[in-house]
Each structure stands twice: as C-alpha cells, then as structure tokens.
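User: Could you write out the 3D structure of this protein bound to zinc ion? I've included everything you need below.
Assistant: Certainly. Input first, then the structure.
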Amino acid sequence: MLSNARTAYQIHNHERCINAALRLAREICQKNKVTLTPTKEQVLKLIWQSHRPIGAYQIQDQLAKIRHKAVAPPTVYRALKFLTKLGLVHKIPSLNSFIGCPFPNSPQSNLFLICEGCGNIAEASCSSVDLVLQKTCRDSNFNLNSKTIELLGLCFLCSESKTTPTSTEDSTAQ
Ligand SMILES: [Zn+2]
Ligand SMILES: [Zn+2]
C-alpha cells in the first residue's frame, strides 16, 4: 500500500514534497508529450503549498497576487483540467477543491484520508481495495469511470490533542 499519511499531518520539510511533485509532473508531461506551461506549473505549486485542499477561486486569487494582475477563471480551469487529467492533482468532490497527488504514477484507487481537525489530507492507494471495487463493478455489470473514496476522521496528531485533558483548560485559564 502507498500512503503519504506519515508526512501529510505533521510538520515536515514540505519543500521536499513540492520538489518531488514538480519533478514527477515534468516527467509525466514529457512521457505524455504535453507541455507544463509556466501557468500550469504555478497552479500545481499553489495546490502543493500545503496538504490542505484548495478551491479554484483561491487559486485564481493567489495567482492574481503573484502576477499583480487579474487572472481570468478559464486560465485556472484549463490548468486544473490539465493537471487532473494527468493524475497530478485530484478533486475532492465533497470539498469542491483540489489536492496534489503524492504518487501520480500509481494506477490504483484514490483513498483520501481527510482530517476534520487540521484539514490536512493524506492519500493512500491500496491494491486490495481496488480488487474489491473491480469485483463489485463486474458483479453489478457496472462500467467504472472514476473513483474517489473519501474517509473522514482525525489524524493521529488531532486525535492526540483531543484526548489530552489539560490542553483546552490551560488555554482558557491564561
Ligand atoms: Zn508536505
Ligand atoms: Zn489533523
């Protein structure tokens, strides 16, 4: 099973995540004979600024700030469509926002572990889940086009802070 849960929820050298994402993006674009234009790269970087999902309007806003001029919505949508199609970025339907894929070369299921405490999302990809899904679809004569599995809960850090009894009392006493 692939998963980036060990880094997604805690403080880490996120620069490494961004660099790895950009390196993979360039590799995948080259393989698909498409061009990662500066705009598309910038949008990918904005999505990868953290492990929290980001909406299209936020991307548009931040892109406009970087460029010191207005950015038309189609520019953002075109970039998002391009990045999503290549598997570099995933849309989280329930949040209507986007997250960078840590392992875009994996053909397996996209399981999203969404922390309701800190908002960070880790992705996991598990071949046995895939087999079950394939069998379910086969048995139901159902042609699967896409799959996004959202798991809601608390990451280990957020569940730790929830079970620490003193933390909330301390902050109100000060
Ligand atoms: Zn990171
Ligand atoms: Zn959390």
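The first strand starts at residue 2 and ends at 3.
User: Perfect, thank you.
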